[in-house]
Amino acid sequence: MSVVTHNLDLAGLRLSPGEGRQLELAVEIEPLILGGERYVPSPQIVPVRLDVSRMAGSGHALRLRLSARFTGSCMRCLKEASPTVEVDAREIDVPGETGDLSSPYVSDRMLDLAAWAHDAFALAAPTKVLCREDCAGLCPECAADLNEAGPEHRHERLPDPRFAKLGELKLE
């Protein structure tokens, strides 16, 4: 595995305009907090592929690719879930520019690789973390795992308490 890299000196790569380089690095990704639950990347130190291209002038075009699982609770049944997250993120940074041509991860030609990897990982993570795509969740009445109980799991419906007084009516 490559050495863990937090920051990368883009100037230190000494790329000529139009030249590019592909780097195999490793970065530590901090756990994510989604819906109040903590999800830990697995492995926490993730191998990444970084493509750096020097643009005409003094800017850089960057591409980050990584793949990792993250583990935590399924948002429906609370069992362990471990979806795989595939990241393919791109950034452009031209010194002195603003907006789309200025990357928040590059400052003074230093790339904050850890922050970029964390943010890209969080954006690529699913909005609903499930143990499996068809997870049925928990029964709202008794909290039974509906994946194990099956579709025949039912409860007797109690009458709506708002209509209880109607039961006391004596109609002739």
Description:
The protein has 2 helices and 10 strands, in the order E-E-E-E-E-E-E-E-E-E-H-H. Strand 6 and strand 7 (80-81) form a beta hairpin. The protein is 9% helix and 36% strand. The chain has one domain. Strands 2, 3, 4, 5, 6, 7 and 8 form a 7-stranded antiparallel sheet that branches. It is mainly β and 172 residues long.
What is this structure's SSE topology?
Layout: E1 7-9, E2 20-28, E3 32-34, E4 37-42, E5 45-54, E6 60-73, E7 80-81, E8 84-93, E9 106-107, E10 110-112, H1 113-124, H2 146-149
Antiparallel strand pairs: 1-10, 2-5, 3-4, 4-6, 5-6, 6-7, 6-8, 9-10
Parts with pLDDT < 50 across at least 5 consecutive residues: none
Give the amount of beta strand, in percent: 35-45%
Subunit arrangement of the protein: single chain
Distance between the termini: 85 Å
What Rg do the Cα atoms give?
A: 25 Å
* The number of domains: 1
Brief summary:
9% of the residues lie in helices and 36% in strands. It is mostly beta strands and 172 residues long. Strand 3 and strand 4 (37-42) form a beta hairpin.
What descriptors fit this protein?
172 residues; mainly beta; seven-stranded antiparallel β-sheet; three-stranded antiparallel β-sheet; 10 strands
